[in-house]
Amino acid sequence: MPTTRPRHQITETPDVAHALDVAARRWPREPRSKLLLRLVQAGGTALEEERTEAARNRLAAVDATSGKYADVFTDDYLAELRQDWSE
């Protein structure tokens, strides 16, 4: 079928065959070509969710430590640090 979009060819290696077999259990009666598309979509969604979860974890870590070490640094800490740089 003519298209202006890029095409990709995938060889059914043992790893690809295994993924397709797993997908066939999830989406029975779908041809393997359709299963491949479903796997790509599911993988993209999983990666986005993983990235979102990692971002939530980073924000939670920042929130958990926010202000925790405020007493370690004096109000003029940065000014003193910068003064050391100019000397």
The overall strand count is 0
Main structural class: mainly alpha
Helix content: 55-70%
Number of domains: 1
Q: How far apart are the termini? A: 71 Å
Q: Topology as H/E string?
A: HHH
Strand content: under 5%
The tally of helices reads 3
Could you list the spans in which at least 5 consecutive residues all have pLDDT below 50?
none
What's the overall geometry? elongated
Outline the structure in words.
By secondary structure, this protein is an all-alpha fold. It has one domain. The protein contains three helices and no strands. The protein has helices at residues 14-26, 32-65, 77-86. The longest helix is centred in the middle third of the chain and has 34 residues, at 32-65. It is elongated. The termini are far apart.
In short:
The protein has three helices and no strands. By secondary structure, it is an all-alpha fold.
Which terms would index this structure?
87 residues, mainly alpha, 66% helix, 3 helices
Topology:
Elements: H1 14-26, H2 32-65, H3 77-86
